[in-house]
Design brief:
With 75 residues, the chain is mainly α. It is built from 3 helices and no strands. The chain has a domain at 22-67. The radius of gyration is 17 Å and the shape is elongated.
Length: 75
């Protein structure tokens, strides 16, 4: 049974990098744009295949923005 709590230490440097990425104008712009796109598709209604494709594209864009913050920078 898995009752022991395993704590994963997060490197403070990595945390600072993530916060720095999230506060960057590029990341904020991409994220706000994708969220607005999702909201507009939902506001107008999902009635056709094209609407579903737009919703998928906007969702993929948002997930890519989130993944970019999570991924460690490789030099």
């Amino acid at each position: 049974m898995l009752t022991d709590e395993t704590r994963v230490a997060v490197d403070p440097g990595l945390r600072r990098i993530c916060v720095k990425k999230v506060l960057s104008i590029e990341w904020l712009g991409q994220t706000v744009a994708s969220v607005c796109w999702i909201c507009s598709v939902l506001a107008y209604g999902v009635q056709s295949v094209g609407d579903w494709l737009q919703l998928c594209a906007a969702s993929a864009w948002l997930l890519a923005s989130i993944a970019a913050v999570m991924a460690p920078k490789v030099d």
